[in-house]
Amino acid sequence: MYNFEYQNPVKIIFGKGEITKVGQNIPEGSKILLTYGGGSIFKNGVYDQVKSSIKGFEVIEFGAIEPNPHYETLMKAVEVAKKENITFLLSVGGGSVLDGTKFIAAATRFSKGDPWNILSRHATVTDAIPIGAVLTLPATGSEMNSGAVITRVEFQEKLAFMSPFVMPKFSVLDPEVIFSLPERQVANGIVDSFVHVIEQYLTFPVNSPIQDRFAESILKTLIEEGPKVLANRTDYEAAANLMWSSTMALNGLIGVGVPQDWATHMIGHELTAFHGIDHAQTLAIVLPGVMHIKRDQKKDKILQLGDRVWGINEGNDEERINLTILKTVEFFESVGIPTKLPNYQVGTDTIDTICDRFTKRGYKVGEKADVGPAEIRLILEDRL
Amino acid sequence: MYNFEYQNPVKIIFGKGEITKVGQNIPEGSKILLTYGGGSIFKNGVYDQVKSSIKGFEVIEFGAIEPNPHYETLMKAVEVAKKENITFLLSVGGGSVLDGTKFIAAATRFSKGDPWNILSRHATVTDAIPIGAVLTLPATGSEMNSGAVITRVEFQEKLAFMSPFVMPKFSVLDPEVIFSLPERQVANGIVDSFVHVIEQYLTFPVNSPIQDRFAESILKTLIEEGPKVLANRTDYEAAANLMWSSTMALNGLIGVGVPQDWATHMIGHELTAFHGIDHAQTLAIVLPGVMHIKRDQKKDKILQLGDRVWGINEGNDEERINLTILKTVEFFESVGIPTKLPNYQVGTDTIDTICDRFTKRGYKVGEKADVGPAEIRLILEDRL
After folding, report:
1. What is the mean pLDDT of the segment spanning B70-99?
2. What's phi and psi for B162, nearest 5 deg?
3. pLDDT at A366
4. Number of Cβ within a 10 Å radius of residue B291
5. How many Cα neighbours within 13 Å face the side chain of B162?
6. Can you give the C-alpha Rg of chain B in angstroms?
7. Which residues of chain A have pLDDT under 50?
8. Distant-in-sequence, close-in-space partners of B182: CB < 8 Å, separation ≥ 6
9. CATH number of A183-381
């Protein structure tokens, strides 16, 4: 394996009933901005649990943060945070609310010009308002990492930033929040988590058996537990296992000392930016194309994935690779996520637009930085 | 799985050549007490690398910390730390040096009476001198956890304490330190790590597939990579995999939300306290006895261990359990660690003494707190 540094100080508070501990984990005297999304927290009881836990704190609320949170919306929250001298951000929602809150945290204390530079130019974040999180949807892993993805609607841009300053101080993971989730959100979470693991695993071997086996452990658990949650939303044990898998998929641990890909995410972000397709849906579309087009470079790991996760150990290499891709596609479709562009009314025009954008940006993606416009075209054409 | 809280802020700096980064991770202006053990760091070049990295800091040295570090020795270091107003402790050694350093860190700032109470009465630690670690031997996991085990020679007592205040701020893990280790220390490290995993895994099922599979991942990696390191001490990749396995075995992650045993450690500590047997050797002696005597309570997990780690999937349950215990014994012996009491010139007298001690203490150990003097006698008699 490669040399690496790893540090993840997020405090995880996991299990049913744990939302009661939110207040005791926020510094006394904090002035809190409570951020949330479309309002599901009012229906599932989470809002009431949180409010009851933070009694005694001064609290201002900022809701209606969208899926793929909008820069435009978040900058309004930044104004509020500045005007009100907010000292703690409490994100109550899924990955979008938390990603948005991370941006609010960094942008409010950003002193070197336009906060857009944090996203567009990777301007270094040197401070942020401390964040706590109550997760209402297992999917993005944002609850235990330093990353966030933000969309600027006017530019049709979906861009990421990372900073240790925006890691949550704590994240409360109560699996019971899953009980009231719509099927589509659960399915998205399963696929998102699955692809997070794949992006850190399905590259080329560097002799990293711990990282590989941990990755396979998460994939196998998602394959087993995901459908249980879809079949019975109130299966607490399955919900807990799905939620913990989702966090472990992107808290950095399985990615230490190994090559990482992220081409699927980078291409998928464009599908969301141009067509508003759910993030996880874009991953389910793009990943099979990446596996197919990069099958030679990824050969050893695709075979290992097939063998260890899907139990594919017969046939020649080509047959095994094809079957491994097929099994992956079938899994996504089995949880209700279509994997072809036409399923989302997307055609060749969009492929041209995305390839143009990557041509203008001038950089390539993938674990060997060799996936440029030509390869992206092949990957997306594979998904027609 | 059970509810849990997990937070592990230790910064891991992993890989060859990384010892050069020690200095930049210590706060400017720190007055350092550099702690070490028997002096192997002078022979393998680690001392020189560390000293070169911390040029410019004021440094005092405290060496000769023993294996199973002695309270008596450590209290001398506490005197030095107080007198010299030490503000940072740099542990350069294996788990014993680091455990000893953790005790120095806590005892120096302990203000509520005799520091012995930290061990004997679990007095709460509320402050500690910050610690950094350069690990020279993969085994104990102390580099990424909050625990330490200390021996008081005059009382023949070996006792543990835990506190988040003594978690290292950083730990440098350079696998090249393994190149010059004697066979016995490598073998001890393999067995110690193996049993750390077992103590958090081989209990009863609580539907925790991520924790189970991660545990099995570490066991399989130890079984594969350990012998490679013993066969060729300069196999960097195997050394790196062993070192990372050892850290992951006891950084708390695989133990979240699941029952834990630790009977093997508690009984083993007594064998060290009375006979000075290496810690890992005591584990290799005791574990097979625990597996045998608690085979009913641990049945489901022993069968799972046999199946998933040792590939034992034929025969009836009793046969599988016996074979799983045998495979474990054979593994320990294959790395050169005998597993019977007579191999260490220990007989029934010691069994009586240990049982008497547990009778006096009045508490039981194991995942169901049901392993008392009578069970301990059976476990140890199984090892005659």
Report:
1. 98
2. -135, 140
3. 98
4. 24
5. 8
6. 20
7. none
8. none
9. 1.20.1090.10
- Does B361 lie at the interface with A, CB-CB under 8 angstroms? no
Say whether A225 and B214 touch across the interface (CB within 8 A): no
- The closest alpha carbon to A337, from A224, A140, A180, A190, belongs to A190
| CATH code linked to domain B182-381 | 1.20.1090.10
The number of C-beta contacts closer than 8 angstroms across A and B is 115
Q: Which tens digit of pLDDT belongs to each residue from B100-120?
A: 999 999 999 999 999 999 999
Phi, psi at B340, each rounded to 5°: -115, 150
Among the listed residues B178, B162, B220, B222, the one whose alpha carbon sits nearest the alpha carbon of residue B40: B178
Q: Tell me what pLDDT residue A292 has.
A: 98
Token look-up 């008596």 returns B72
Q: Taking the complete model, does pTM exceed 0.90, yes or no?
A: yes
The B170-173 sheet, strands edge to edge: A58-62, A31-35, A88-93, A131-135, A170-173, A4-14, B4-14, B170-173, B131-135, B88-93, B31-35, B58-62
Sign of the alpha-carbon torsion through B79, B81, B84, B85:
negative
**Among B225, B234, B165, B236, which residue's Cα sits nearest to residue B189?**
B225
Q: Which CATH class is domain B11-176?
A: alpha beta
What residue type is assigned to position B271 of the chain?
L
CB-count burial class (<10 Å; 0-12, 13-18, 19+) for B113 = exposed
Report the distance separating Cα A21 and Cα B373, nearest Å: 39
Closest CA of chain B from A241, distance in Å: 7
Distance CA B338, CA B278 (A): 11
A13-39 CB burial, b ≥16 within 10 A, e <16: bbbeebbebbbebbeeebebbbbbbee
Question: What tens digit of pLDDT does each residue of A326-345 get?
Answer: 999 999 999 999 999 999 99
What is the rounded distance in angstroms from the CA atom of residue B40 to the CA atom of residue B26? 23
Q: Where are the domains of chain B?
A: 11-176, 182-381
The answer to whether A4 faces chain B, any CB pair under 8 Å, is: yes
Contact between chains at B6 and A12 (C-beta distance less than 8 A): yes
For chain A, say whether B214 makes contact (Cβ under 8 Å). Answer: yes
